[in-house]
Amino acid sequence: MSNFAAYPSLKDRVILITGGGSGIGASLVEHFASQHAKVAFLDIAEQPSLELVERLAPHSKHRPLFLRCDLTDILALQSAIAQISHDLGAPQVLVNNAGSDDRHDFVNVTPEYWDQRIAVNLRHQFFAAQAVAEQMKAAGSGSIINMSSISWIIPGRQLPIYNTAKAAIVGMTRSLAHDLGPSGIRVNCVQPGSILTDRQRRLWMSPEYEQEVLDRQCLKRHLLPDDVARLVLFLAADDSEAITNQSHIIDGGWI
User: Fold this and answer.
1) Is the CB of residue 145 less than 8 Å from the CB of residue 95?
2) For a FRET experiment, which of 41, 66, 184, 215 has its CA 20 to 30 Å from that of 76?
3) How many domains does the chain have?
4) Which residue range is the domain that position 137 belongs to?
5) Rounded-to-integer distance, Cα 57 and Cα 209, Å
């Protein structure tokens, strides 16, 4: 990562990342750790998260802090954030990254499945922001970065609830930016396109879909988690201190 920017303002800053154990989240953890930040991350998948900590710890100024947390349990989420504040200090950056793009058919959706998917992809973002907001207000600054997707714009197929949640995140971002801006807190949204994570490679990246992605993008290459992480670093750092209330698309020119 020596060819890319270093952000002095991120040094020793407390960063909270949800869904940090794999995929884009793991890249976020690694990139923030490389900036000498104090990184805490939440994930329900314990083993890959612990392995990530052990891989990064020898090369990090601050050992990343992992807490296992089911983000659909809001009380557990609030408790985890309180523990992070106690152990590391108040989060100065929140990256609401966690989500799941499980495919589903509109005709088969039940109220129970709807509620579960909204809980996985939307609800925790709101309550995580709520949980860090008062401490950010007290500090007079903060950066909240909510992960959406271009999927709701395209729209992606067999993803009606996921698309609904990702569209709602854009609206939530704009609302929170206005509510929290007077306290010096910035709220932005990142909308990735097709990012070649291990999960995407394993479940969805068929030769046909790969060709569709490359046909639609202006840039004829796969986008990787590191591409997204570098954008998030910028939005977390003081370099972007005048940027809020925006949705930042990173899709290789798909839309």
Assistant:
1) yes
2) 184
3) 1
4) 11-197+224-249
5) 36
- 245 and 181 Cβ atoms separated by less than 8 Å: yes
Tell me, yes or no, if 209 is annotated catalytic: no
d(CA 173, CA 179): 10
Residue that the structure tokens 């401490």 belong to: 135
Domain holding 59: CATH number?
Answer: 3.40.50.720
Is the residue at 254 inside a domain? no
Per-residue pLDDT of 177-218, as tens digits, reads 999 999 999 999 999 999 999 998 888 789 999 999 999 999
Q: Judge residue 90's burial from the number of C-beta atoms within 10 Å of its C-beta, 0-12 exposed, 13-18 middle, 19 or more buried.
A: middle
Q: Residue 147: inside a domain, yes or no? A: yes
Query: Which candidate, 1, 38, 45, 54, places its Cα nearest to that of 20?
Result: 45
| Domain membership flag for residue 212 | no
pTM, to two decimals: 0.97
Residue 202 included in any domain? no
Report the candidate in 214, 137, 212 with the shortest Cα–Cα distance to residue 176: 137
pLDDT (tens digit, 9 = 90+) per residue, 67-116? 999 999 999 999 999 999 999 999 999 999 999 999 999 999 999 999 99
